[in-house]
Amino acid sequence: MTVPDFKTIRRDLHKIPELGFQEHKTQKYLMDYISTLPSHRYELKKWKTGLFVKVAGTEPTRTIGYRADIDGLPIREETGLDFQSDHVEKMHACGHDFHMSIALGVLTHFVQHPIEDDLLFIFQPAEEGPGGAQPMLDSDEMKRWMPDAVFALHIAPEYEVGTVAVKEGLLFANTSELFIKFKGKGGHAAYPHQTKDMIVAASYFVTQLQPIVSRNVDPLDSAVITIGKMESGTVQNIIAETATLEGTIRTLSPESMNSVKSRLEALIQGMKISYDCDIEVDYGSMYQQVYNDPEWTKDFISFVETTDNRNLVICKEAMTGEDFGYMLEKIPGFMFWLGVNSPYGLHHSKLNPEEEAIDFAISLMTEYFETLNVKTK
Ligand SMILES: CC(=O)N[C@@H](CCC[C@H](N)C(=O)O)C(=O)O
């Protein structure tokens, strides 16, 4: 079998981004590709819109897990690339097209050149929300094929291709989504005294959230509250009866997440009195922090250091979230950042990672897994 071009595979996947638990075309694409590999070397199980693929080892004593997330984001792509998204208002703006093609590359290698250990490839839906990692962990397939260690990577636009950035311990933050609904009383723009204006209430609330971070969280224990969406009103001369806010909370410690939410709820009680309105809060999905197992991470760091043409960066923790944190809570392993050098960052409509990072990552991970194989002997 000739080795396929994983950049072409990435471009195919880039054209068909789908939101969490709607990844039907993506799942079919992955399955169609995997079905071209010798079928006696692997076992495949569909799980919702994701996949588990177990590649048989020659004399397995353990199972090594590798996870790639597969969903896209609700963003209108503005890269102008000739393989731009075919799906309106959807884009692979967080690099999951890279994550999938790298996983397919590693999978292909080990189907053709098995190591002693079994390998479990986890193609996970809904990382951007509402979260696929925890339900996958709870699935019968995962219980049957539970890996002894699990690894994943995430593209990093800020680093050059060839860079691996990682750290032991905390890598990504605790996260919670945030959905707030305001209900007041609408009316004529010229008679505000007869209304309860929810544009004024919601705007005030957005500004009141900011001091939670600067005045309630220990400065040495960071937090972020971002409101990414605000919706209200119908036309310029009608006072808005309702308003909705959507956002996310990020904290370095689980304890700070609880205290940020307590402060937010206290503010809401005050707002209800001040603006004489109803306010409902819903936290949506919450993700466990990504905590890299120190032993596995040290092992990976010394592997990267001792190989040529790989630039190792010991990075700081980031306020990004990842439901891979749930896998690392149960199974030792690590996640790392893969340099892709894009002038536009994650979740940007012009994100354009350099595709040379795909082959770099495939050889990085295949060599690393081969090193682990030697260590089991
Ligand atoms: C790596 C990355 O960008 N992950 C997302 C995870 C989103 C979690 C959830 N939907 C939330 O917004 O809290 C991120 O935004 O960090």
Describe the structure.
This protein has 377 residues and is an alpha+beta fold. It has two domains: 254 residues, Zn peptidases (Aminopeptidase); 113 residues, Alpha-Beta Plaits, CATH 3.30.70.360. The chain has ten helices and 17 strands. The strands form four sheets. It has an eight-stranded mixed sheet, sandwiched between helices. Strands 8, 10, 12, 13 and 14 form a five-stranded antiparallel sheet that branches. It has a two-stranded antiparallel ribbon with strand order 7-15. Strand 1 and strand 2 form a beta hairpin. Helix 1 packs antiparallel against helix 3, helix 3 packs across helix 10 and helix 6 packs antiparallel against helix 7. Bound molecules: the ligand CC(=O)N[C@@H](CCC[C@H](N)C(=O)O)C(=O)O.
Notable traits:
377 residues, alpha+beta, Aminopeptidase, Alpha-Beta Plaits, 8-stranded mixed β-sheet, 5-stranded antiparallel β-sheet, 17 strands, 34% helix, elongated, binds the ligand CC(=O)N[C@@H](CCC[C@H](N)C(=O)O)C(=O)O
